Amino acid sequence: MKPLSFVFLGLSITSSWGNGHATTYRGLLKRLAQRGHRVLFLERDLWFYAENRDLPHPPYGRTELYQSLDDLHERFRDVVRDADMVVVGSYVPDGVAVGAWVTETARGKTAFYDIDTPVTLKKLERGDTEYLAPSLIPRYDLYLSFTGGPTLELLERRYGAKRARPLYCSVDPEAYYPERAAPRWDLGYLGTYSADRQPTLDRLLVEPARRWAEGRFAVAGPQYPGDIDWPANVDRTDHIPPGEHRGFYNAQRFTLNVTRRDMIEAGYSPSVRLFEAAACGVPVISDAWAGIEEIFEPGKEILIARSSEEALHLLRELPERERVAIGQRARERVLARHTAAHRAEALERYARELAEERELPGDVRL
Q1: Helices (H), the chain
Q2: Residue 9, Cβ neighbours under 10 Å: how many?
Q3: Which helix (H) or strand (E) holds 38?
Q4: Pairing between β-strand 252-257 and β-strand 234-237 as defined by DSSP bridges
Q5: Rounded CA gap, 250 and 41, in Å?
Q6: pLDDT tens, N- to C-terminus, the chain (366 residues)
Q7: DSSP of 161-230, one letter per residue?
Q8: Burial letters for 219-253: b for 16+ Cβ neighbours within 10 Å, e otherwise?
C-alpha cells in the first residue's frame, strides 16, 4: 500500500525529563518509519527540555524544533497542509492555538492524541483550556486516547468527538527485555513525583520499607519534594534516562505501578511503566483500577496490592517459581498485544479508514 505522511506536534520527543510522552512518541515514530511512512515530529524548543535532551536527534523520521507560533506557521505551513494526517498531542504549548491552526490548514486528516485523557477531562470540567478547548474537539477528525473503555463514548457524546479511538501507550521490545542479573532491590518504582500518587507510593513502598528493614527498595524520578522522609533502605535517584530503564527494571525482584487519581477514576488507563517492566519479565505489583483485567490478568500476569500488608506479603512470601512465572506471562502478553509496532499498525489503520471515508460520497461508510 501507498506510504502515508504523518506530522506530529507533540510535547517532546528529544527529552524524557519529567514526562512520559517522549518514550511513547519515540516508539510510535520508529515503527511508523519502519513501516515505510514519512514522519515529521515538531517540538517547541523549551528551555527545560533543552537542558535535559537525552535524544537530541531521533534516528527515525525527521524532528524539527520551533521557537514560537509564528515560527511554526512560517516554516511548516506547507508540510502541515499537505500531510495525510497531522496529529496534535496533549500538553503541547499553546495547544489550542496550535490545534486551531492545524485544523484550518491541513487538507488531510487531523487527530488529537491525548496521552493524558483523564487529566484533560478534569481540566475541561473546570474550564481549564491549557492545551485543548471543548470547541476544538469536534474539529479534529479523530480523538486518540491513552484511555479506553467508557471514556471513549463520553468523548463522543458529551464533547462531540467525531471518532474516539484507543491508542494506548506501548513498549519497544528491542529496548526492553530480560537480562540475567542478581536483583539489587526487592521493589522499585520509576515515576515523576505527583502529589496524588504519593499516598499510594507511601502505602505500597515506603511503609513496607519501614517495616522490613532487611528489604531493599528504590524510587527513581524527578521533582520529589526535599522534605520526604525516605527510609534508609530506599535508594533515591533523581532521573534515569530511557536508555537505562531496562537495567533499572532488571535489577528489581518486583516493580511497583502507581496510578494517578484521575486515571483511577476513569479506568482503562495503563501506564507505560506497566509495559516496560513486563517486557523485561519483571513482575508488577499495581494498585487497582477498572479495566486492568483487559490489559493483564490479575493474579496470573500482574499482582494487585491495596495495603502495606498485602505488598509486604507478596514481597516476602510469594514463591520464587511463581514470581518468575508471573513475569514471564506478562512479557508474553505484552509481546502479543502492547508493543510500539501494534500501536503503529493501529494508527495506520485509523488513518487509512479516514482516507477511504473521505473518498466516499456523502455519509456512506465502508
Answers
A1: 21-34, 47-50, 69-82, 95-105, 117-125, 150-159, 198-201, 207-211, 245-250, 261-266, 272-279, 292-295, 308-317, 320-337, 340-358
A2: 25
A3: strand 38-44
A4: unpaired
A5: 31
A6: 899 999 999 999 999 888 889 999 999 999 999 999 999 999 999 999 999 999 999 999 999 999 999 999 999 999 999 999 999 999 999 999 999 999 999 999 999 999 999 999 999 999 999 999 999 999 999 999 999 999 999 999 999 999 999 999 999 999 999 998 889 999 999 999 999 999 999 999 999 999 999 999 999 999 999 999 999 999 999 988 888 999 999 999 999 999 999 899 999 999 999 999 999 999 999 999 999 999 999 999 999 999 999 999 999 999 999 999 999 999 999 999 999 999 999 999 999 999 988 653 433 322
A7: -S-EEE----B-TTT--------SEEEEEE----TTTHHHHIIIIIHHHHH-TT--EEEE-S---TT---
A8: bbbeebeeeeeebebbeeeeebebeebbebbbbbb
Q: Are strands 5-9 and 142-145 parallel, antiparallel or unpaired?
A: unpaired
pTM listed for this prediction: 0.89
* CB distance 96 to 123 below 8 Å: no
**CA–CA separation, 240 and 80 (whole Å):** 34
The rounded distance, in Å, linking the Cα atoms of 250 and 87 is 34
Assigned C-alpha cell, 189: 518504582
* Cα–Cα distance, 159 to 136 (Å, whole number): 9
Cell of 325: 512465572
The DSSP output letter for 348 is H
List the one residue out of 31, 17, 61 whose CA is nearest residue 170.
31
- Do the beta carbons of residue 4 and residue 351 sit within 8 Å? yes
Dig out the grid coordinates for 218 from the structure: 528504590
